[in-house]
Every structure is written in C-alpha cells, then in structure tokens.
Amino acid sequence: MITIQCSKKFIQSFFIETTVKEPIYINGVPIYDLYLEKYPQQEYLHINGVRAKALPGGAHYQIIEPKLFEYFNEICQLFNDNTDIVVEDESYLPLSIQVNGKYIFEIEHAGTTFTMNTELGLDDIRNIRNKIEGVFKGKIIPLLKEVRLHG
Amino acid sequence: MVRWELTKFKVEKTDKNILSFETKIAIPETYKTITVIYDGKQLIVGGSELKQNYLIYEIKSKLESLLESSLIKELSRHSRNEEYLRGFSLTKISVYPEGTLANLHYVYNNKFLEFGSVLVIPPYKSWEKLCKVPLTVETNAVSNIKLFYELLTEICRSGVRINIDVNNVNKILEILLQKIGV
Predict the structure, then answer these.
(1) Is B124 within 8 Å of B166 (Cβ atoms)?
(2) pLDDT digits 0-9 by tens, B39-97
(3) How many domains does chain A have?
(4) Would you call A6 exposed, middle or buried from its count of C-beta atoms within 10 A (0-12, 13-18, 19+)?
C-alpha cells in the first residue's frame, strides 16, 4: 500500500513500498525491498529509514527529491484540508480518503466482496482516480525508475 | 388516496426460463400487507388470482425488461458459468414522506451488484445526476480493484437504463395498486 498525507494542498508525508532488481546498499547490506518515505515537515527522501542523500549513489536521489515532492503536490492539490490517502500499489488506484480524520471515501475488500462507502459522487471519484493513477503511472514511477528505486 | 408503503420487490428468472416475482405493499392505516406473487403462470394479488390476461401480459413484459438491464449483462461478463439465474430486487427500502429510497440489486448467477440509496418512488427524474450524489456500491462480481473501478464507470454509463428500470418498477406498482384499489 501507498499512503499519502496532504495538508492544505501540499504533501506532508508519504510511504511507498517497492522492490528493486539491483539492491541498494544500506550499511553495506544489499537490500531489495525498500520503503521510500517523506516525513512531515522534512523536505528529504528517506529510504528504509535512512536519508537518501547519505546512501551510496545518494546524489542521484537528492536530485529527484524536488521533482518527486512536486508530483505528490499535484495529487494534494485536489484536497483543501488535512487529507490521508491510501493507494493500492499495483494499480495505483485510491482505496480510501480521509479528510480531517473522517472517511469521505473507502473501498473495503472482504472475501469476494468489494464495498464502497463514500460521501462523494462517482464523477468526483473518477476525477480523483484519474489524477492519482495518472500522476503515479506517468510521473512518480518513471522518476523512481530513473534512479533505480522502482522495479 | 390511501397511503401505502413498498416493503418488497423481487423478480427472478431461473435456468428453466421460469419468471417469478414477489412484491409486498403495506397499508399502514389498516395494518395490512398485500402480497403479490407471480410464479410464471398465475398472478396472485392478495390471495386471489388475477385473471385479466392483458394486465398479466403488461406486468410480465415489464418484469422481463428489468431482467434485461445492461447491468445484469455487465455481471454476466464476470460469470464463467452458464446462466442459471438472473434477478432484480429492491433492498434496504426506506419510506419517507417525500418518497421511497432503496438500493437496486442486480443478480446474474452467483454474482451481484447493489448500489443506492436512490429515490425509486416517485422515480428520480434527474438520472444524469446519478453519479453526482453519494452512492454505496457493493459487488462480488470482480476480482480486483481495477475491475471494481470499471464497474463504477459502468454504473454511470447505465444512468438512462437505470431510469428505465425504476420507471418499470413504478409502472408495475401502479397497475397493481389500481387492481388492489389503493
């Protein structure tokens, strides 16, 4: 799962799990399963809890940081208030959206049944979906691939 | 005119091509509930057989139309089995002074799609607004989130058809209420 936290239309934090073909060396240990994070109030990318800049090849990661955060801001532009978004990490489709701690959209999957509860109309959901899916598939993932932080 | 409330509306067709239908209409004033049953041959209204063939024909054709909904066809795309059941019903019926809200429940074999609440009585006139209002959607027809999103798009594409379905429900009830004398 991918989680995104927005505040007043700007990215606060995010968490993305990813698996890479070529390992990243953290403290000399090759790591294939990564989690990429931005913490609230910090404008840095962290990889498995370590500031990306400090890792071997860190200069490449540092270069993409502004662009990466700008792409997340594009998603956050959809929301005025404090918003928590959960996105599926295969399809890049939104699974839930909470605004100021209250769910305004949620898809639950239990057994064979999908249930969607929402305060939004399906047209709004389609627009949000298109934006989030488009930013991930067209911008964030290709950018992460460029510096080998994704598949 | 006596006040009435819909409490059940369910139509099904099995693999033997047998159409069945049941609806229940409550009359709060008299504490009575009138049950209407069609078993493919007879239409029983409040325990008595309705013998007017033209009325039965009209009701039957509208019931058949409900089972031809594009959303049932969409569900059939997700079923690997030969057709053995299709159905349409109203669930979670709630009656308010302004009208009756319900979920629309479509079935093909063991697959279902249900969404609502939508105004079914009187029929909602602005169906182009269907996807601008909050809807709860539930289904077991899809296997992943991507297909679920496609189904949401299909609901929006089917706005006109959903309008026809709800109008058919109203027309069937209108005929039956006249017959019952409500």
Answers:
(1) yes
(2) 998 999 999 998 888 899 999 999 999 999 999 999 999 999 999 999 999 999 999 98
(3) 1
(4) buried
Which of A102, A113, A114 is the best mutation test for B, with the most CBs of B within 10 A?
Answer: A114
Architecture field, domain B5-180:
2-Layer Sandwich (3.30)
What ipTM describes this predicted complex? 0.92
- Tell me if A151 is assigned to some domain: no
Instruction: Show the domain range for A48.
Output: 2-146
Phi-psi region of B40 (alpha: psi -120 to 50; beta: other; left: phi over 0): left
Q: Which of B131, B138, B144 sits opposite A121 (nearest CB)?
A: B131
CA distance B22 to chain A (A): 26
Q: Rounded to a whole number, what is the distance in Å from the CA of B178 to chain A's nearest CA?
A: 37
CB atoms within 10 A of CB A28: 6
Question: Do A114 and B145 lie within an 8 Å CB cutoff?
Answer: yes
Start-to-end CA span in chain A (Å) = 15
Q: Which residues in chain A have their CB less than 8 angstroms from residue B136's CB?
A: 115-118
